[in-house]
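Q: Predict the bound structure with NAP.
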Amino acid sequence: MSAVIDASTRLIGILGYPVRHSLSPLIHNTALRSQGLNAVYIGLPVPPDRLGDAMAGIRALGFLGANVTIPHKEAVLPLLDSLSGRAQAVGAVNTIVARQGALHGDNTDVSGFLAPLQEHGSWLRGSDMVVLGAGGAARAAVYGLCAAFAPRLLTIAARRAAPAERLASGMAALGNVGTVLLPDAAPQMTSARLIVNATPAGMHPGAGETPWAERTVFRKGQLVYDLVYRPHETRLMREAAAQGARVLGGLPMLLGQAAAAYRQWTGKDMSKAAVEQALEQVLKKDYLGASN
Ligand code: NAP
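A: Predicted complex:
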């Protein structure tokens, strides 16, 4: 079912710079059309020095809400009227919802990240974990893991010490969070039940890359969760699986964070089947070498 764009069409968008490669317009427009909702989701490329103007525009134009991506996830916080507890704790917003003229910030990356881990919840609780990377996705992952599973020790392994230490100290109140430089992380990787890749290493078009090239650290039963969703199966996932580890890719997180935002904007559950089908068409092109 497809709604006609007319004078009552409501707007949703993604604020980022650049946004050209974002899959969010495809995801949300597919979902909106499949439910016949009179709204459209557009890319909103906003340079860092125009974020304030763009937020004034979101208010003035009566947007239903927006997503926020790199480089605005942190800078947008002071421009909002209220924040969810998790957005406040993570220090980043990926979803804005208009509520009676006020703009509320949330972080649905956290629930999207946790969704595929819930079935492993009792096994993960109180265990050792490693998060590779210390950027925005790592921030959501570290917060989510501490809040949901109270790890015995969560180690942030990053190629630069300062961002890892900043992230660890920001989360210190939530649990036992340590840091290690990425090349020295083999002992923590081997003993971890869960390893999360929150770096872009291995992402299309650099699919030959991996954040961790030493295959022998992986072991049977371990869970290796790569937040990269493009390609579906990364080099890290292939090499971990070859050593007997269980693997998870980033697509469920992408869909989970989108569905949680969509629910807040529309009050409806996203039709995942329609969205998965549309995404499959686009992601298939990566393997054929077509441009995206
Ligand atoms: P970000 O804020 O730029 O942080 C990237 C982190 O990865 C930084 O710590 C960076 O280190 C590190 N890094 C970059 N390249 C690396 C490499 N080759 N080897 C080791 N470390 C490297 O980016 P982000 O927002 O956290 O996103 C990270 C990735 O997560 C994205 O590229 C995407 O694939 C994935 N992600 C997935 C979802 C999803 O829904 N599935 C959502 C968000 C993000 P430096 O500081 O030293 O550069």
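A: The first helix runs from residue 24 to 34.
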